[in-house]
Design a protein that fits this description.
Elements (H helix, E strand, L loop, with lengths): L2 E5 L9 H5 L5 E4 L12 H12 L4 E6 L5 H5 L4 H17 L4 E5 L10 E5 L5 E5 L1 H12 L10 H13 L2 H13 L10 H9 L5 H23 L2 E5 L17 H10 L5 E6 H5 L6 H8 L3 E6 L1 E4 L5 E4 L8 H18 L7 E4 L19 H23 L1
Parallel strand pairs: 1-2, 1-12, 2-3, 3-4, 4-7, 7-8, 8-9, 9-12
Antiparallel strand pairs: 5-6, 6-11, 10-11
The structure holds D-mannose.
């Protein structure tokens, strides 16, 4: 069985643990969001959170994420201390038997979108990314030095026209949407801070960046392995370069390079179907087949995309990602692990972003994390899984 999981943002999350119990999830995906990146997660804090989750009859299955400090990504400043803290956090989590840790290695910012309220035909609302709008934001609102060199001439022209027509309120909304993708424990980023953060990667390039990731893996994977923790590196969202920054995990080649850097089950991936799926050049069923042995965590959602870097999140069984094929590959992998890995408990899967549907429209949730939209997705995931497993066993 997969481990049916639900992302919960902690006691401040408008979705309560008691509600989650009724969605069909048995396990929680969460983090100590208040601990700043680069600091150690203390055993008492981990335990308190774990007990809180258990008091509702749920289990804490996955950490998403132990954030990687920017200095580790750049190998600058106090990166050595921060790596030591990271290792200590992994040890502390392993000792509490929290066996899967998701993290990402995206420079400067986490996910990026240009609209969080894209309306589907059925009245649902989900996020989308429009490359021209993003260019307009980058060049004309963020005013990143040299930004126009990142886009082809036809996009530059369209971006300028878009900005000219935009009201001040619309411009603010676009910029705010972009800023939401910056991770942090309640930090609010000024444009100046954002530009400095981006500038910090100047000159590193893809090779330098991947090499920093590999160095990090060489240090943390052995610790994770000896503590029984499976790491799950989340892909780039979206899976193409933005803001002149390097990218680490956007396609099959990147993923293979990273998992082969340190040969261990602990050096694994989060297979996020929506992130990888946003690029038309990614063949997801093939990626799942080739990477299956190292997929430690599944994020399931769907997107409709084109080949010009635009995409929108959509209903789980209706987009460009063949969710069925991926689930089937992972169920076969699960059956294989049951036989080959002692103590194996199942691959955690969670519905990733959900659309706002029904009563979600009347509430304020973390972007992409409403109650009903995700509950529908989890039900579809579990139904699909049950159907595939039944077919395979007859
Ligand atoms: C967005 C998420 C990401 C993810 C991190 C993992 O909803 O998929 O923020 O949690 O990138 O480190």
């Amino acid at each position: 069985m997969f481990i049916h999981s639900w992302r919960w943002f902690g006691p401040d999350d408008p979705v309560t643990l008691d509600q989650i119990v009724q969605t069909g999830a048995t396990h929680i995906v969460t983090a100590l969001h208040r601990v700043p990146a680069g600091e150690t997660w203390l055993p008492e804090e981990i335990r308190t959170r774990k007990e809180l989750i258990q008091s509702s009859g749920l289990q804490w299955g996955v950490v998403e994420s132990v954030p990687v400090h920017e200095e580790i990504k750049k190998r600058s400043g106090h990166y050595r201390d921060r790596i030591e803290n990271y290792k200590q956090s992994l040890k502390n989590l392993g000792r509490e038997k929290i066996g899967t840790v998701c993290y990402n290695f995206m420079p400067a910012l986490d996910w990026s979108r240009t609209n969080l309220k894209n309306r589907g035909r059925d009245g649902s609302e989900a996020s989308s990314f429009d490359f021209t709008l993003f260019a307009a934001m980058d060049i004309h609102l963020l005013k990143r030095p040299g930004a126009s060199e990142s886009y082809p001439p036809e996009i530059l022209e369209k971006a300028e026209a878009l900005i000219r027509e935009m009201t001040a309120a619309r411009r603010k909304e676009l910029l705010d949407t972009f800023l939401l993708g910056f991770p942090g424990s309640g930090e609010t980023f000024s444009l100046k801070a954002v530009l400095e953060r981006i500038e910090g990667y100047a000159g590193l390039g893809r090779d330098g960046y991947i090499s920093n990731l590999k160095e990090f893996l060489k240090e943390i994977v052995p610790v994770a392995e000896s503590e029984g923790v499976l790491l799950a590196l989340h892909p780039d969202d979206p899976p193409f370069p933005l803001l002149g920054l390097p990218r680490a995990v956007s396609n099959l080649r990147d993923a293979l390079e990273i998992i082969s850097a340190v040969d261990s089950h602990s050096n694994g991936l989060t297979f996020c179907t929506g992130s990888f799926g946003a690029s038309s050049t990614n063949d997801l069923p093939r990626m799942a087949r080739e990477l299956a042995g190292r997929i430690n965590f599944l994020h399931i959602r769907n997107v409709i995309r084109d080949d010009r870097f635009n995409f929108q999140e959509c209903n789980l069984l209706e987009g460009d990602v063949d969710v069925y094929a991926i689930m089937k590959t992972m169920i076969l992998e699960d059956l294989h692990r049951v036989k080959s890995r002692p103590g194996y408990e199942g691959i955690p899967v969670r519905p990733d972003h959900g659309a706002r549907i029904l009563d979600d429209h009347n509430k304020i949730y973390y972007p992409g994390y409403p109650l009903y939209g995700r509950m529908k997705n989890l039900a579809e995931i579990r139904g699909l899984e049950a159907g595939i497993r039944n077919c395979l066993s007859h």
